[in-house]
Amino acid sequence: MSQNIEKINAKATEEQHIKRMADLLRQGQTLTELACPVCASPLFRLKSGELWCARCEKKVIVVKEEAELTKVTSALSLETLEATLLAKIQEIQEKMLHETKVEELQKLGSALSGLLENLEKVRKAKKI
Ligand SMILES: [Zn+2]
To answer: What is the CA radius of gyration of the chain?
Structure first.
């Protein structure tokens, strides 16, 4: 029994995470190529310039950010980010298949287009 409850909780948390990411994108916050050191989720750059993890719901301070990141680590985090985005896009697609409410479909649609935009950016960044 308790295992089932844990599964349900994990699913709810994951849904909240997707929703928070979608909300941040809608607010115009930027998805960065940096990954959270705690949960490896992609980090957002807030308009205030701070890095934010939507999964941990915490500010993240990246030591010696960007300037001293080697090309290798940034390529690796782009790979991680691309994989995360693809996984999220797939999750949203699955939700859309089962969703019947127009309002929810619109929300999912805008989350999806935000994710696709970011995927495009990641793929462009990988080519540099
Ligand atoms: Zn995190």
So the answer is: 15
